[in-house]
Q: What sequence folds into this?
C-alpha cells in the first residue's frame, strides 16, 4: 500500500521522523548473499528419461530424473577426501576414524563432491556403541581445521537416526524411531534422502527422520565424523551416492513420505512450507500471545535485585551463599518448586593464557526456557528477551579480550513465565569453545532466585507502544530498535560502501519486525576523525543529525587512521571523542564499530602489503572498545574478522565481504546469529536500495557545488548574490515526499514478508 502525502505534510514528517541508511540501487544486483540456500543452477528435471530415439540417424536423449548411483569412495585410499590423517585411514574397504586416546575435538573427513538433492546409502559401525559419530551433509567447513557447520545424521547410543545441526541450531529432530532398528556394535545401513527442504533418514530399513526445514541449507558437502571424547572407532563402508534421486525410502513412495513430514520446531505440523519466522529485536514486542502486553526487559530491570546495575553479573560479586545446581536441568527440580520468574546462574572456570587468546571463542548454552541474558566477565555476550525461544539453541560469540588467563565468570539470567524453566537442553551443547577445545559446562553451577512473577507483573513500566521510561538508558539492556527510531550511519569510505551494499540495513530492517524504523546515511568518502571536509554552506554533522532526528548513531572509524600506526593511537582516541561530542547531546545511544584486519592482496601482487598495519588495527580496535565501555556505548569488535578472499585490494571489501561484515555486525548487536533472510525479502532489499538513492540525491546530490557553494554566478548557489532565485534547492526538496512514499512501501513489504 502506498501512502500519499502532501508536500507540506511530507516535509514536516521528514524532519521529525526516522529513516534508513543509504545505498545505491543496482539493477543488476546479486542477492546470492541473502539467500545462500538458493540454487545457482536450474531445478533438475525429474520426468522419466526418453531414450534412444533415432530420427534420420540423430540420437535424441532427454534429461534423466536421477543420476546413476556413484561410489564416491574408491574403497582403496582417501583420494577425493580430506581430513586429519592422524585419525582417518582406509581398512578392509572402509573409511575408518580411529583413536587409541581421547579425541580432543570433533574430527571430520570431507568428500570433494558437492551435494544438493541426493540419496546416500552407507554402512556404519561404531565401536563401542556408547561413543558418538555422525554423517554431515549439505555442510561446509568453518575453519582451517575442517570443523563443520550444517546437517548431521547422528550415530551413537541414544542418538542413532536423529537429526542435528552442527555448530548451528543444535537438535532438529530428536525422536527414538531408530531404537529398535539399530544393531549395537554391528554394521548398520544408514540412508539419507534430501530433496529441496525435505529430509528423511532410515536405519536398516526403518524410517527415522521425516522433516521439512524451510530454513535449512540446500547445498554443501558430505563428511564423516569421529566425535570428541574417549577412544573409539567408527567405520563407514560402501557409500553409494545418487544425485537428483527419486523420492523413495523405506518402502514408501513420495506421497507416503510427504504424509510423514513435520516442520522442524513445530509439533505435528502439516507437510506444507512453513511461514517465515518473525525475528524481532530484543525486547520491545513479546511474541507469545499471553505475554504480548508485558515489556519483560523493563519489568526485570525495575524489579529484579540482580539486574540493578547488573550486580549479579559482575565477576567480583560474592555468590558463596548461593545454592548449587547441576546443569542442564529445570530449577523447579533443584530447590525452587513451582517458581516462576527470574533465576540467576553463575559459574567460574579457569583458562590458560593460550585458551584466553583463542580467536572467536563461543559460549554454547543449549536450550533455555525461555528467556535469557548472558554475560562473560561482566560483558554482555547475548540474550533472547522475548518469550517463545525455549527451543532456540544459544550459541553466543564472545568478543575479543573478554576472556582472560585464570578465572572467568559466566552469568546467565533466566526468565521463565510458566511451566518448568531453566537451562535444560542437551548437555553436549552446554560448552565453552576455545579454538579446537571444548570445555564442558554440563556440571555444577551456582543458582539464586531473583524477582518472582508477581513482583515482575507489579512493576510499573512503559509497555510496547507507549513512551519508553528513559530514552537515555535504553542501551543498558543491549541494542534495541523501537518504533520510530532513526539510525544514522557515520564514517568514511568503508561505511559508504557498506551502506551502498544494502547488507546491514537489510538485516536490521528484518530484525525490526513490524516496527517502523528508519535509517540515514551520513557517511562520506575519505572522512576520518581528524578531518571531515564538506562543501561550503553544507552544514555540520550536528546539524544533519538534528535535521533527521537521529536516535541511534552507528559510527565506523579507525580503518584508515590505523595506517598511521600505533604511535598516533592516543591522538586518534582524542579526535574520535571530539567527533562523538557532537553526537552525545543528540543521542546517548551510540554504536562504535572497530576496524577489521587488512588482507594481503592475492589478485594484484604489486599492491602494497597492508597486513603490516594489522598490529595497529588490533590496538585501535581495543582502544575503541574501551572508549565505548567508558561511555556505556555499544562496541562491535571486528578485530578478529577474517577478510581472507573478501577484499579487492586488501582493504575494500567485495560484495561477499560486505555481506559477511553485515552479518557479523548484526550478530554482535543482537546476540544471535544473523540468520538467512526469507527469499521474499529480495523485494524489500530492492526497495531499500531505491529509497537510498533518493535519500542520497537529497542529502548529498552529485552536483553539490551548484546547491551549496562555489558557483557565485549561479542562482542555485548559496554564494549567489543577492541569493534569489534559488531554483535548484526546490528540485531537491521535491525528493522528500518521494522518500516518504518509498519508506511507506518498504514498511508494507516488510509486514507482508515477515
A:
Amino acid at each position: 500500500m502506498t501512502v500519499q502525502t502532501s508536500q507540506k505534510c511530507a516535509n514536516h514528517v521528514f524532519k521529525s521522523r526516522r529513516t534508513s541508511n543509504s545505498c545505491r540501487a543496482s539493477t543488476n544486483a546479486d542477492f546470492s548473499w541473502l539467500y545462500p540456500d538458493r540454487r545457482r543452477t536450474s531445478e533438475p528435471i525429474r520426468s522419466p528419461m526418453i531414450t534412444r530415439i533415432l530420427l534420420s540417424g540423430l540420437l535424441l536423449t532427454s534429461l534423466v530424473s536421477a543420476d546413476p548411483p556413484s561410489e564416491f569412495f574408491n574403497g582403496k585410499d582417501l583420494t577425493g577426501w580430506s581430513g586429519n590423517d592422524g585419525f582417518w585411514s582406509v581398512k578392509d574397504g572402509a573409511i575408518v576414524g580411529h583413536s587409541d586416546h581421547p579425541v580432543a575435538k570433533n574430527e571430520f573427513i570431507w568428500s570433494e563432491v558437492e551435494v544438493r538433492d541426493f540419496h546416500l546409502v552407507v554402512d556404519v559401525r561404531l565401536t563401542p556403541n556408547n561413543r558418538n559419530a555422525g554423517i554431515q551433509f549439505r555442510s561446509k567447513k568453518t575453519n582451517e581445521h575442517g570443523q563443520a557447520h550444517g546437517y548431521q545424521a547422528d550415530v551413537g547410543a541414544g542418538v542413532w537416526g536423529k537429526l542435528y545441526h552442527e555448530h548451528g541450531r543444535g537438535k532438529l529432530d530428536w525422536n527414538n524411531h531408530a531404537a529398535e532398528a539399530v544393531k549395537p556394535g554391528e554394521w548398520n545401513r544408514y540412508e539419507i534422502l534430501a530433496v529441496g527442504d525435505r529430509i528423511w533418514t532410515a536405519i536398516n530399513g526403518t524410517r527415522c527422520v521425516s522433516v521439512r526445514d524451510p530454513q535449512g541449507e540446500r547445498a554443501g558437502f558430505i563428511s564423516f565424523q569421529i566425535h570428541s571424547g574417549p577412544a573409539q572407532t567408527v567405520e563407514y563402508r560402501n557409500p553409494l551416492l545418487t544425485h537428483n534421486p527419486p523420492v523413495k525410502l523405506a518402502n514408501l513412495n513420495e506421497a507416503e513420505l510427504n504424509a510423514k513430514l513435520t516442520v522442524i520446531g513445530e509439533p505435528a505440523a502439516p507437510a506444507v512450507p512453513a511461514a517465515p519466522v518473525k525475528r524481532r529485536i530484543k525486547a520491545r514486542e513479546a511474541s507469545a500471545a499471553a505475554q504480548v502486553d508485558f515489556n519483560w526487559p523493563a519489568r526485570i530491570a525495575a524489579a529484579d535485585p540482580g539486574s540493578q546495575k547488573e550486580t549479579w553479573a559482575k565477576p567480583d560479586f560474592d555468590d558463596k551463599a548461593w545454592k548449587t545446581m547441576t546443569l542442564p536441568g529445570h530449577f523447579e527440580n533443584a530447590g525452587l518448586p513451582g517458581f516462576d520468574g527470574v533465576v540467576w546462574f553463575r559459574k567460574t572456570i579457569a583458562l590458560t593464557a593460550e585458551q584466553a587468546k583463542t580467536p572467536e571463542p563461543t559460549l554454547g548454552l543449549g536450550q533455555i526456557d525461555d528467556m535469557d541474558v548472558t554475560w562473560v566477565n561482566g560483558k554482555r555476550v547475548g540474550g533472547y528477551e522475548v518469550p517463545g525461544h525455549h527451543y532456540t539453541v544459544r550459541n553466543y560469540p564472545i568478543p575479543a579480550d573478554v576472556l582472560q588467563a585464570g578465572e572467568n565468570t559466566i552469568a546467565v539470567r533466566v526468565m521463565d513465565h510458566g511451566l518448568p524453566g531453566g537451562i535444560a537442553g542437551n548437555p553436549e551443547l552446554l560448552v565453552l569453545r576455545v579454538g579446537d577445545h571444548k570445555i564442558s559446562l554440563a556440571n555444577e553451577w551456582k543458582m539464586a532466585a531473583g524477582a518472582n512473577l508477581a513482583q515482575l507483573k507489579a512493576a510499573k513500566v512503559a509497555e510496547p507502544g507507549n513512551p519508553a521510561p528513559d530514552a537515555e538508558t535504553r542501551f543498558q539492556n543491549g541494542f534495541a530498535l523501537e518504533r520510530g527510531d532513526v539510525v544514522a550511519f557515520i564514517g568514511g569510505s568503508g561505511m559508504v560502501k557498506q551502506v551502498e551494499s544494502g547488507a546491514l540495513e537489510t538485516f536490521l530492517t528484518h530484525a525490526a519486525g513490524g516496527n517502523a524504523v528508519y535509517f540515514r546515511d551520513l557517511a562520506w568518502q575519505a572522512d576520518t576523525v581528524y578531518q571531515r571536509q564538506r562543501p561550503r554552506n553544507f552544514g555540520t554533522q550536528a546539524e544533519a543529525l538534528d535535521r533527521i532526528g537521529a536516535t541511534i548513531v552507528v559510527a565506523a572509524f579507525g580503518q584508515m587512521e590505523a595506517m598511521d600506526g600505533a604511535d598516533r593511537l592516543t591522538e586518534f582516541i582524542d579526535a574520535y571523542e571530539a567527533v562523538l561530542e557532537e553526537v552525545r547531546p543528540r543521542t546517548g545511544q551510540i554504536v562504535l564499530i572497530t576496524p577489521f584486519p587488512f588482507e594481503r592482496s592475492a589478485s594484484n601482487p604489486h599492491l602494497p602489503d597492508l597486513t603490516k598495519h594489522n598490529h595497529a588495527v588490533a590496538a585501535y580496535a581495543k582502544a575503541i572498545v574501551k572508549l565505548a565501555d567508558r561511555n556505556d556505548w555499544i562496541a562491535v569488535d571486528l578485530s578478529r574478522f577474517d577478510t581472507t578472499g573478501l577484499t579487492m585490494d586488501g582493504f575494500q571489501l567485495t560484495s561477499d565481504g560486505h555481506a559477511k561484515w553485515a552479518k557479523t555486525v548484526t550478530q554482535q548487536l543482537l546476540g544471535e546469529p544473523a540468520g538467512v533472510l526469507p527469499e521474499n525479502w529480495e523485494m524489500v532489499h530492492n526497495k531499500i536500495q531505491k529509497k537510498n538513492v533518493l535519500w542520497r540525491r537529497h542529502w548529498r546530490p552529485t552536483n553539490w557545488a551548484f546547491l551549496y557553494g562555489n558557483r557565485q554566478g549561479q542562482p542555485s548557489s548559496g554564494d549567489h548574490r543577492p541569493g534569489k532565485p534559488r531554483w535548484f534547492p526546490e528540485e531537491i526538496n521535491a525528493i522528500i515526499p518521494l522518500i516518504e512514499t518509498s519508506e511507506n512501501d518498504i514498511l508494507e513489504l516488510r509486514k507482508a514478508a515477515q
User: Anything to note?
Assistant: Residues 681-699 form the longest helix (19 residues). The CA atoms of residues 530 and 575 lie 6 Å apart.
